[in-house]
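Progress against Task 2.4 (sequence-to-structure conversion) is shown through the following example record, which the project officer requested during the mid-term review.
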Amino acid sequence: PEQAARMKKLQEQDKRQKVEFRKRMEQEVSQFIQATGEPRRRFQPMNKIERSILHDVAEVAGLTSFSFGDDEDSRYVMVFKKEFAPSDEELEAYRRGEEWDPVRAEERRRLRELAAQQEEAELEHGPAPPGPPNDYKDKYRHLIGSDAAKAAARTMEANKAYGCVPVANKRDTRSIEEAMN
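Structure tokens generated for the chain above:
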């Protein structure tokens, strides 16, 4: 009974702390919403429960929120106003633990665009022809000439002795039925 009472007291204390924390976060979030020159706010590192409370508060307030940081001790929440929602690049920078620099990001975006345009131009001109730069026929032109193959193709005739034997070449002129009988 004594232990149960102590547990109950701890749970109530825990619950009270969470309620107080939520109130504090609601105040901070409303201050953030009223701060005009602030598109995003980074909160101090906090534990999982506190982060989930903050995410909930942000969602209720109509804000976008993300958690960043690798280990449990250093994970923190960042809250963004909807009109300043972060781009994928911005999120990636925070995930890598870097500061987001819009000027550098814009420069990187321009470089990527330029590379894409160059790639497109290369595709329009067609790829470089694969294989050796010279034609193997040129190598043997002195032996076969340039139109030997065409002449050979013109003079070629079907071999009459190949495949089906024409009636003219048959010695036995009986039909199949006659031969069977």
